[in-house]
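Quiz preparation item.
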């Protein structure tokens, strides 16, 4: 047995407790979600037929209140009506059937701050239950075959911790096929410096998509990787460099040297998504996509209000 002793975990100190405490309180303030300059009424689209009575921003606001407080749709409409009265606004409130119908085609606006010094993108995925019994029943009596999941794929900015790309797929779709779609959501005019992901993204298609954006791939090679790839497509040579560095230095040293461990930030963000609900409430796929996009918009707003700043003390 080895006598090697694991080093003690590092200790950190939060240096902006006062500002961070105010930011946490602001998350529960009702009026930070309501903009009096919001375009509430729908605008003429130039197409045939009656124009929409409510704008996409109004529908997104209603769904934001629903997700933020974990309400059923009818309860959320009642809360929206109360908020508008408290704000002294005489705007009409959509009924629940209108919101439900519009959710299917809603183009959710996810606010974010562009990366000033270039974007370091961290990607990961997780599963969210959409149908099935609870964990207690599964533990006592076993799981039924009807349990179904959706897979949520996100990419976050390593600097601002805001969600910059989001995709929702059936559980049967893996991580690697979705990466090009995530990169496609990043503005082509924005400098993408690196993309960090786990070994599931170690595929030729992923490395090619990253290379076409002229970014660095920080992806560990699979544990059974032995031979380099043929360098006949973009990204192959960069991946071969990772393989040689891993074989020469070891996987642990390569991860520390490349900055791979900051990928844990996206795992923390996934935990934040699940804190807003382990289960997806919508039943059809298009509404599920909109529901998770609204959650992403809420989390970005939380992040913009303030995050803890820490320094290592030991």
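Solution:
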């Amino acid at each position: 047995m080895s006598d090697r002793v694991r080093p003690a975990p590092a200790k950190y100190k939060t240096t902006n407790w006062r500002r961070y405490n105010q930011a946490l309180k602001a998350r529960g303030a009702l009026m930070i979600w309501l903009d009096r300059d919001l375009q509430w009424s729908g605008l003429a689209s130039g197409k045939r037929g009656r124009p929409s009575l409510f704008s996409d921003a109004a529908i997104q606001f209603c769904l934001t209140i629903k997700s933020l407080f974990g309400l059923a749709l009818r309860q959320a409409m009642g809360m929206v009506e109360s908020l508008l009265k408290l704000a002294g606004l005489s705007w009409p409130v959509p009924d629940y059937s209108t919101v439900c119908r519009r959710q299917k085609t809603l183009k959710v606006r996810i606010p974010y701050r562009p990366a000033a010094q270039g974007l370091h993108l961290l990607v990961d995925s997780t599963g969210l239950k959409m149908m099935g019994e609870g964990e207690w029943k599964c533990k006592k009596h076993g799981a039924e075959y009807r349990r179904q999941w959706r897979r949520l794929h996100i990419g976050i900015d390593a600097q601002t911790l805001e969600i910059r790309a989001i995709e929702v797929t059936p559980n049967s779709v893996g991580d690697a096929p979705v990466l090009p779609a995530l990169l496609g959501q990043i503005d082509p005019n924005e400098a993408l410096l690196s993309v960090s992901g786990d070994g599931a993204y170690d595929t030729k298609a992923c490395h090619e998509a990253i290379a076409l954006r002229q970014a660095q791939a920080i992806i560990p090679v699979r544990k059974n990787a032995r031979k380099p790839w043929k360098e006949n497509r973009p990204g192959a040579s960069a991946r071969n460099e990772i393989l040689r560095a891993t074989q020469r230095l070891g996987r642990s040293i390569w991860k520390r040297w490349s900055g791979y461990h900051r990928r844990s930030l996206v795992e923390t963000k996934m935990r934040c998504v699940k804190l807003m609900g382990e289960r997806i409430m919508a039943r059809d796929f298009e509404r599920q996509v909109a529901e998770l996009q609204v959650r992403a918009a809420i989390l970005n707003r939380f992040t913009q209000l303030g995050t803890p700043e820490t320094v290592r003390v030991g």
